[in-house]
Amino acid sequence: MQKPDCIFCKLANGEISTAMVYENDQIACFKDASPQAQTHVLIVPKQHYHDIEDLGRTAAGRDDAAAVLAAVPEIAAILGVGDSGYRVINNCGSGAGQTVFHVHFHLLSDPKLKDKLV
Ligand code: 5GP
Ligand code: ZN
User: Fold this and answer.
1) Is 39 inside any structural domain?
2) Is 68 within a domain?
3) Cα–Cα distance, 77 to 39 (Å, whole number)
4) Residue 2 covered by a domain
5) 4 within ligand 1 shell (Cβ under 6 A)
6) Which tens digits make up the pLDDT trace of 68-80?
7) Which residue out of 40, 48, 104, 106 is catalytically annotated?
8) Which residues is 30 bridged to in the sheet?
9) 93 part of a folded domain
10) Is the CB of 17 under 6 A from ligand 1?
11) Which CATH number fits the domain that encloses residue 37?
12) d(CA 56, CA 60)
């Protein structure tokens, strides 16, 4: 199900056009509008889930979560970061920095990430 007025529902389902890095029937991947690393994309289920807890709550959500994981290596290869390494991050809740309440996974790659603790 999509949520009216959800920006990521609209982006992931083509209601607002964006350059897709990768797309299949379950998920979409597009560039972050405010990149925090040399490579910074968002991997987003096409169905609306509020956050990672909501994603894990149903069988359909867990299937979409599996689709995200399955696409990660392909997306990393498309972006040319499969060998250099990358980080996948989910922020759950405003206290952890979640600002868009349609679950999404940041995929980041940058030499500077190597020096960070987590
Ligand atoms: P969060 O802070 O919720 O984990 O991440 C939200 C991310 O979405 C931020 O990195 C922000 O730059 C990105 N973002 C917010 N609005 C848009 C948008 O309209 N288009 C794109 N491509 N990214 C967005
Ligand atoms: Zn949504």
Assistant:
1) yes
2) yes
3) 12
4) no
5) no
6) 999 999 999 999 9
7) 104
8) 20, 42
9) yes
10) no
11) 3.30.428.10
12) 9
**Of 58, 59, 41, 26, nearest in space to 104 by CA:** 41
- Ligand 2 centre distance from Cα of residue 53 (Å): 14
User: How crowded is the C-beta side of 37, counted as CA atoms within 13 Å?
Assistant: 22
Do the Cβ atoms of 31 and 21 come closer than 8 Å? yes
Placement of tokens 């989910």 in the chain? 90
Res. 17: pLDDT tops 90: yes
Q: Which atom of ligand 1 is nearest to the CA of 30?
A: 22
Q: Give the structural domain span for 35.
A: 7-115
**Predicted local confidence at residue 62, as pLDDT:** 98
Per-residue burial over 34-58, b if 16 or more Cβ lie within 10 Å, else e, is eeebebbbbbbbbbbbbbbeebeee
pLDDT at 116: 77
